[in-house]
Amino acid sequence: MSRNRTRLGIAGATALGLVAALLTGCGSDGDAGGGVTKLTFAASTFGDPGRGPKLTAWLDEFNKSQDKVQVSAAAVPYPTFGQTVLTQMGSGQGPDLVRFDMPEFEAAADAGLIAPLDKLVDVSKYDLIKQPDQFMVHDGVRHGIIFEASNYAMFYNADLIPTPPTTYDQFFSTAKSLTKGDVYGLAFRQTEAEEAGVWQDIFNYVYGFGGAWSDGKNLTINSPENLKGLQAYKDLYDANVIPRGADAATFRRMFAEGKVGMELNNGGYVTATRGQNPNLKFSVAPIPFPVRKQGAILAPIVINEASEAKEEAATFIRWALEPQNQIKLQEILGASSVATTTQRSAEALEETPFLTVFDELTESSLPQIVLGFEAKTPDIRKVVVQNVIAALQGKVDLKSALDRAQQQATELVS
Asked: Keyword annotations for this protein (predicted)?
């Protein structure tokens, strides 16, 4: 994948003291413990109450299989993860291995903080899933391996919706017919306070109606296709089929309580939904928009350029890519995909038959970044969301809002 590269100033951010202490000393214990190299792997998911303990046990399996390398987990809270880890890496320290989300991955790659993997991991040995894997390579240089890919789909209450909609018109009419009293047909984020979440939501409307934020070289925010997709989003807002003003935590709880009929979300939401209401009868189907293209949460695993033990860190990545370990990782992650092609177990499919829906969407899913302007995505996102919300609130018509966003974003990246 080719892109405009921008070096970022990262070291100026302030890290949290306690977490920083956990992440210092890349490969510093290389001669400790009778020649055992001790590494640190940082990931916000290690702190997940559902998946964290299972991921730690998976890591223990690696440690038991090795006599020269040991990897310990560092659970950094999601809200401070990017700032903390990038600050550490920018100062030449930090964890040896990192599970990044895409914006931080792009920022670290642009700043030269990630070690190239081409000479450390021979990817030709593995059956990598091509669609998400392409975003791990920048200008011919591989910087990451997919750790988790979580595709977006349509979640629906199967008691309220026996047959899921398969077109946007059906989607609209279903949302409208279900909205009665304290029950809403649909929910999505629509406030500036949830900027990142609004971006995730409107991404599906833009790409699902044949649009894109750029052509790889130029921004296309105000393209006719984008206008059509975002008009569909606004039409639903104007139809009062959503709980206006409700944040994601609120309307997801409402979905679990049977008070929201549909929501577009990623595979990671399956476990959370069951955690809120194990008895909820819900299912998943592809997003019923004209084009089968939707967002995905991509989380690469990378090696810190500052690590003194890159080969040992690569040993872990190569172990993680072995078929049996990929299968175990996918079972832990649930409805997400991993780096390679795997087969779901009969037990998993019996418990969650719609897992195959997520898996089949992998080849048509895209990370929620602006292609060609990856490191500038947060800035572009802010401009787009501000203007789209202004249109929702009736302050400006949608076409004018997108024209303004196009102009403002173009000035930002020039």
From this structure: Signal
